[in-house]
Write a structure and sequence with these properties.
2-enoyl-CoA Hydratase, Chain A, domain 1, Rossmann fold, 6-stranded mixed beta sheet, single chain, 16 helices
Amino acid sequence: MHYTFPYKFAGTLEIPDAHLLGVFEAHPHSDQPEEAIIAGAIAHPVGAPRLREFINARETVLIITDDVTRMTPVDRILPHLLSELERAGVPDHNIRFLIALGTHRKMTRDELVAKLGANIVSRFNVANHDWDDPEALFHIATSTQGIPIVVNRAVQWADHVIGVGTIFPHAVAGYSGGGKIVIPGISSEATCGDMHWAMYGIPPRDLYGHVENPVRALIDEFALKAGLDYIVDAVLDARGRVVAMATGDPIAAHRAGAALSARHYGVRVPGPADIVICDACGADIEYWQAIKAITPAGIVMNDGGVIIQVAACPEGIAVSHPEVLEYGYRPLVVVEALMQQGLISKSVAAHMIQASEVIVDRGRGFLISPGVSPEETVRLGFLHAETPQEALDRALTIKGKSASIIVLRHAGDLLPLF
């Protein structure tokens, strides 16, 4: 088979037909216009009143949106949301925006304008979350497990906190969206780490695409205690167009949105393969994000198999977390030891084990990326190849010429179903 990647730099690939189990890609789509989908979801919330009835004119509203690492068309969603607040009589000075960075870098003004719209940036108070500034953070509550919940102080100002984001299959939380806009979106690094580290010891296949899991339970509790009381979450296609949406109660609406996401991103595959070829197109500003493709690839990889990942990573490996490159993806026991010694945070450790579980403990991996140098590739723990074709040829040498092969296109959002 002659296969072409969704990247110009990756070129093409010749895959032996006899051993190819198939090329699999989610095809989220809708016959409805995007604006009608958004308007319909805003008008028919799940588990909560319509926003115009939920908020009154005297109350303050904090709108939290996801950042540049997500394709959410916030600029096309906000007019509908703000129209509801206007109908409720909420004045502009009672509305603020906060960008949920998690532990990502801050967005530039140009990026904010592109994400929110020029009118929003000039009309309202818009701020990046300062996750590494103690003065910007506040210990708002303690979880039932005794974990401190530390978030951005802006939630103290608001009577209502609305999250705007996207729901897709997620390696740690089962699905993104919902309370994730708060935890890790506007939390401290320590709170973010506590959430992510809850995944430790749970097989990825028991988290990815499973909406009810221990990590999601932690996220929900943290977010509700931090004040999140309404969400506006979209399901997107590969171009970033809204194909479905759920709004309303942070729990009920999220579960409804996750069900929509599963229908759009779920793809039936024939079974695990010895070699899995995948890309992270659309979710790869840096490898910190592109790792999203590793989990579904690992789920469809036989133990002892080989992953070949292609990703652009124009901002390198992890702008905010240089320790990822310093230590690389090590065996799980080593990652845990580094975390216990205080050499890496829980957030970094959780990131590391997503890759380590696949390319170190269970198999091997090639990474082809113009944003990651050959030296960095090897230092991370991947095998280096100049091209996907070279990687496949070497993988066939490792696994044998009869090795089975699966291709996952746009793997970062794909939910493999057996």
